[in-house]
Design brief:
single chain; 222 residues; mainly alpha; 8 helices
Length: 222
């Protein structure tokens, strides 16, 4: 009786314990939570920079930072919110958690690729944030030339981080496309799919088609 109760009480949060079981997990729900924690941490960091920006704009002239520092904080706020929060937010966190559940599948089509996508996200985020400590970029989050090719800040480092983040998005999109194509249950035709699955599917197509264009542009810039 106790064994049955233990089995009943086991879930994706407690079936295995320890940090390593989370960092090497292939469970789509755990990977979704890993993405959620990582993305919310990025949101907190970007939000802190937003508060610094608003504080600086309280008074004319220098309030808490110089003009160069303001440009750096403004750039990093935009880069973090776009590349670390907005782009992966819904597909990587919510999509990873609910997409297989809504299809009635055990997991996504490629669980190991799913974990690799998260590790690529972590690697790209670490490199991008490391540029803050080395020599924060002041070009704006779009890294427009010609200033981004002439400034003395660490443009190459943050662009490399964003390039790696792009691969994370591409692999996630590819995984979702194959999952929806191959793991739909019998009877769930395209026009019987829930609207959220359609949204995740169309987002995945955009990720696969558009992100390589952004990636090659960043590579050329670097």
């Amino acid at each position: 009786m106790s064994t049955a109760a233990t089995t009943r009480d086991s879930n994706y949060l407690n079936v295995t314990k320890g940090a390593l079981s989370w960092l090497l997990t292939l469970d789509h729900k755990r990977i979704g939570i890993l993405y959620l924690v990582s993305i919310l941490s990025s949101f907190f960091l970007g939000g802190m920079m937003a508060m610094l920006i608003r504080t600086e704009l309280l008074t004319p002239g220098d309030t808490i930072m110089t003009a160069d520092q303001y440009n750096q904080v403004f750039t990093l706020h935009g880069a973090i919110m776009i590349f670390l929060f907005i782009i992966p937010g819904i597909p990587a966190a919510l999509g990873n958690f609910v997409l297989p559940l809504m299809l009635g599948a055990k997991d996504v089509a490629f669980p190991r690729l799913n974990l690799l996508s998260w590790w690529l996200w972590i690697t790209g985020a670490f490199i991008a944030v490391a540029s803050i400590l080395i020599n924060a970029v002041d070009t704006g989050w779009t890294f427009y030339t010609p200033y981004s090719t002439t400034t003395g800040t660490s443009v190459t480092l943050i662009v490399t981080g964003v390039f790696i983040l792009g691969f994370s998005s591409i692999l996630t999109g590819l995984n979702f496309i194959v999952t929806i194509h191959k793991l739909r249950p019998k009877g769930m035709t395209w026009f019987k799919m829930p609207l959220l699955l359609w949204g995740l599917y169309s987002t995945a197509i955009i990720q696969v088609l558009a992100t390589p264009v952004l990636g090659i542009t960043l590579l050329l810039l670097a």
